[in-house]
Amino acid sequence: MGRNLINFVTLLDIGCWAVCFWWMHRISQRQDAMLKELHEQAHSIEELSREEREILKELHPTVEKIEKDVDQVKETTEG
Q1: For 52-59, which contacts have Cβ atoms below 8 Å and span 24 or more sequence positions?
Q2: pLDDT per residue over 20-75, tens digit each?
Q3: C-alpha distances in angstroms, 75 versus 24, 48, 55, 67, 68?
Q4: What is the pTM of this model?
Q5: DSSP category for residue 1
Q6: How distant, in Å, are the alpha carbons of 14, 51, 55 from that of 1?
Q7: How far is CA 69 from the centre of its chain?
């Protein structure tokens, strides 16, 4: 009976290692998918930021001109 118990425990040990390996592989695949999604999201955010910067570069001189015009109107109405 001792020999059969050792064989059973050995097979059980091998089975546990197989299940553990499968489980870790599955977790790794999920992590890879999540990292890929995060990378894509970061890329799209970078693109949006670049577009926003370009828009702000175009608007900045206009905003500055409007502020000067408002200051001039303010000076003329106060004076």
Answers
A1: none
A2: 999 999 999 999 999 999 999 999 999 999 898 888 777 777 767 777 777 787 77
A3: 72, 39, 30, 12, 10
A4: 0.53
A5: -
A6: 20, 75, 81
A7: 43
